[in-house]
Design brief:
Blueprint lengths: L4 H33 L2 E2 L9 E6 L2 E6 L11 H12 L10 E4 L6 H8 L3 E6 L4 H12 L8 E4 L6 H4 L9 E5 L8 H11 L5 E7 L3 H4 L1 H5 L3 E9 L4 E8 L13 H4 L7 H15 L1
Parallel strand pairs: 4-5, 4-7, 5-6, 7-8
Antiparallel strand pairs: 1-2, 2-3, 8-10, 9-10
Length: 284
């Protein structure tokens, strides 16, 4: 295919804009990640019990951690989800909404959702409930519209008994860093499936690590429609919104311009790159 000088110039400009957009996206990623990490602070003095502090939803939150298990540490995915909930509180209004967090760990996400007005059920394995209960109570008592509750949830076990579908309706399911090197991915998918109704929204922050765990996203999509809300390449974390298949109204991707919506340029950025590369191959 021979390109006119004007087409070649157009494609070259498209390629330059695409490269600038990618560079701008990298800078934006770094700026937002820096802002998220600034929400964390540490005690000025060493104390007998390890804790970390966070500023979210207008409150100072103190989280007691432990280093002997994954679930007793605040991971970056939790901070990403908390930051999203706080900065998107109008679009995702949690006031009086029924929210469940699976794999709540130290409870940070549940605490922030509670401070934003939700009625929250924070769940995790029985051995983590003591620390989880401590953190939730310490940071929400007399501060929330609805006092959150802490409940045991072992993925895939006694789901109908402990969370009967006839009486348990959740507006939101929240999950931060629930996919990692563990042998319970089948049970995790079963738990999502049981708790999610037709109008339930899943907000899931996923840290990408090993291929085996990363493949869970594909399995998840056999049951749910998945939409990327935010992506943080510097952290290898993606924030997803999901609903049951066929129930989610498609949102316009953030990168899609109004001109493209209205049927403006027929060349997309990716097409521009492709045509420009092919043109140079032919001219060699």
């Amino acid at each position: 295919m021979d390109l006119t000088s004007s087409q070649h110039s157009h494609l070259q400009n498209e390629l330059i804009r695409e490269l600038e957009r990618q560079e701008g996206g990298k800078e934006e990623d770094e700026q937002i990640v820096a802002e998220i990490m600034r929400r964390r602070f540490f005690p000025p003095l060493i104390t007998h019990k390890a804790w970390e502090g966070f500023h979210f939803a207008g409150h100072e939150i103190r989280i007691t951690e432990a280093t002997d298990c994954y679930g007793a540490v605040v991971w970056p995915s939790a901070l990403v989800l908390c930051y999203f909930l706080e900065t998107n509180s109008k679009q995702y209004n949690l006031v009086d909404k029924n929210v469940i967090e699976i794999g709540a760990g130290t409870g940070l996400v549940s605490i922030v959702a509670s401070l934003l007005g939700a009625f929250v059920t924070a769940t995790d394995l029985p051995e983590l409930l003591g620390n989880l209960q401590h953190n939730v109570l310490q940071n929400t008592k007399l501060k929330c519209k609805h006092q959150p509750r802490v409940k045991e949830l072992s993925w895939g076990i006694d789901l109908e008994k402990n969370f009967p579908r006839s009486s348990c309706h959740f507006d939101y399911i929240m999950a931060a860093d629930v996919v990692y090197h563990h042998p319970f991915l089948d049970e995790l998918l079963l738990t999502f499936d049981h708790l999610c109704e037709n109008d339930t929204v899943i907000l899931w922050a996923m840290k990408f690590r090993l291929d085996k765990e990363n493949q869970f996203v594909g399995r998840f999509q056999t049951l749910f429609d998945l939409e990327v809300i935010s992506n943080f390449p510097s952290l290898n974390i993606t924030l997803y919104k999901a609903m049951r298949k066929g129930k989610m109204k498609p949102d316009l991707p953030n990168w899609q311009s109004e001109r493209e919506i209205q049927g403006g340029d027929s060349f997309s950025c990716s097409a521009a790159c492709s045509f420009f590369n092919n043109f140079h191959v032919r001219s060699c």
